[in-house]
Automatic annotation (TrEMBL):
One of its GO terms (biological process) is translation. This is Ribosomal protein S12. Coiled coil: none annotated. GO terms for cellular component: small ribosomal subunit. PROSITE patterns: RIBOSOMAL_S12. Pfam families: Ribosom_S12_S23. The lineage of its organism: Eukaryota, Viridiplantae, Streptophyta, Embryophyta, Tracheophyta. InterPro entries: NA-bd_OB-fold, Ribosomal_uS12, Ribosomal_uS12_bac. It comes from the Eukaryota. The keyword Ribosomal protein applies. Belongs to the universal ribosomal protein uS12 family. Keywords: Plastid, Ribonucleoprotein, Ribosomal protein.
Length: 47
């Protein structure tokens, strides 16, 4: 979890993801609850 910059406040659920192109990004996990663990395969939507 990370916290957003001022003036917002919350605990955002995020995951550090390494793409096949070599980039390492921080992806937001929407919704209530998740069962993602280390080495999970994820689908990332461009924003």
């Amino acid at each position: 979890t990370i916290t957003p910059k001022k003036p917002n406040s919350a605990l955002r659920k995020v995951a550090r993801v390494r793409l096949t192109s070599g980039f390492e990004i921080t992806a937001y996990i929407p919704g209530i609850g998740h069962n993602s663990q280390e080495h999970s395969v994820v689908l990332v939507r461009g924003g």
